Amino acid sequence: MRRTKEQAELTRGAILASAEVLFLERGVAHTSLEHIAKHAGVTRGAVYWHFQNKAHLFHEMLSQVRLPPEELARHVQESAAADALQALRELCVEGIAGIASDEQKRRIFTVLLHRCEFTEELREAEERHEAFINQFIALCEATFAQPSAKSRLRPGITPRLAARTLHALVVGMLSDWLRDNSLFDPLHDGPVMIDGLFSGLISDWS
């Protein structure tokens, strides 16, 4: 039983690895489950044993490299007593640095931001991805809405606007860097760029 379970996990891992490679090379819309099965050296039935459809496979691929919303929330909440805004800043800096330094994360986020067209076939994956985005924005908004943070927002900036601005900048930074990694150094310039944004949102940011 143990060996069978290990073999199943190896097969599942091979399918996910092949999906990464082919989605990056061909684009998600132009890659079929048959392509992935052939590349992984498994049968089409083996793919369906582990994944309901391409949307499920795509979602599971993304889940390998992004933190669940619960972990994101805990990361910020554990630092709330000290400075939730600083914790949110660190979360953004670490996220960008992590993608820059981890090849798998870099491949998968390149697929998501540049090689994925959300067709009808991927509607389920698109809905799950949008739910993840909305949860992250909600976490940011809740952080900015804390009394100790809200009182520091610049005039005219609401927690809602601050959250959407932060999300837009981080996604824009990642999208641009994955398109052309000569634009900036994520490890050196990333923190400076994130701090520039926070100083535009928070009146006393240093």
From TrEMBL:
Q: Which Pfam families did the record assign?
A: TetR_C_2, TetR_N
Q: Which residues bind DNA?
A: 32-51
The UniProt GO MF terms for this protein read:
DNA-binding transcription factor activity; transcription cis-regulatory region binding
Q: Which residues form the HTH tetR-type domain?
A: 9-69
Q: Would the keyword Transcription turn up in this protein's UniProt record?
A: yes
What keywords appear on the UniProt entry? DNA-binding, Repressor, Transcription, Transcription regulation
Name-wise, this protein is: Transcriptional regulator, TetR family
Q: What is the lineage of its organism?
A: Bacteria, Pseudomonadati, Pseudomonadota, Gammaproteobacteria, Pseudomonadales
